[in-house]
Amino acid sequence: MTPGKRKVAVVGVSLSDCGRVDDATPYALHAQAARRALADAGMDRSLVDGFASAGLGTLPPVEVAEYLGLRPTWVDSTAVGGATWEVMAAHATDAIAAGHAEAVLLVYGSTARADIKAGRRTGNLSFGARGPLQFEVPYGHTLIAKYAMAARRHMHAYGTTLEQLASVAVQARANAALNPEAMFRDPITVDDVLSGPMIADPFTKLHCCIRSDGGAAVLLAAEEYVRDCRTAPVWVLGTGEHVSHTTMSEWPDFTVSPAAVSGRLAFGRAGIRPEEIDVAEIYDAFTYMTLVTLEDLGFCGKGEGGAFVEKGRLLVRGGELPVNTDGGGLSAQHPGMRGLFLLVEAVRQLRGEAAGRQARRPDGELPRLAVASGTGGWFCSSGTVVLGQ
Question: How far apart are CA 107 and CA 29, in angstroms?
Answer without folding.
Answer: 9
